[in-house]
């Protein structure tokens, strides 16, 4: 699951994604939505749960790039 809070904390946007190719597509689209909405070139992606192990290379690449 990924989420972001909107400006001034008035809303929170969530997305659930799987650790597979479709999850990578979903996470990519979510990151692009955030870039557009917040008018940012880069979005920071942080894995909060240190016990989480992402295995799909495409998902890992998206997290590393963001």
What coarse outline follows from CA principal-axis ratios?
globular
Low-pLDDT segments, ≥5 res: none
- Could you state the order of secondary-structure elements as H and E? EEHH
Give the C-alpha Rg: 12 Å
Average pLDDT for all residues: 83
- Identify the quaternary structure here: single chain
Biggest beta sheet attributes: 2 strands, antiparallel
Strand content: 5-15%
User: What is the number of strand segments?
Assistant: 2
* Share of helix, binned: 40-55%
What is the strand arrangement across the widest sheet?
1-2
Number of helices: 2
Number of spatially distinct domains: 1
The computed structural class is: alpha+beta
The end-to-end span amounts to 16 Å
What characteristics describe this protein?
alpha+beta, two-stranded antiparallel ribbon, single chain, 2 strands, about 70 residues
């Amino acid at each position: 699951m990924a989420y972001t809070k909107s400006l001034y904390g008035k809303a929170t946007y969530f997305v659930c994604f799987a650790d597979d190719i479709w999850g990578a597509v979903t996470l990519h689209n979510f990151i692009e939505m955030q870039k557009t909405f917040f008018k940012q070139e880069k979005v920071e992606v942080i894995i909060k749960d240190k016990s989480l192990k992402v295995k799909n290379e495409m998902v890992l690449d998206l997290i590393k790039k963001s």
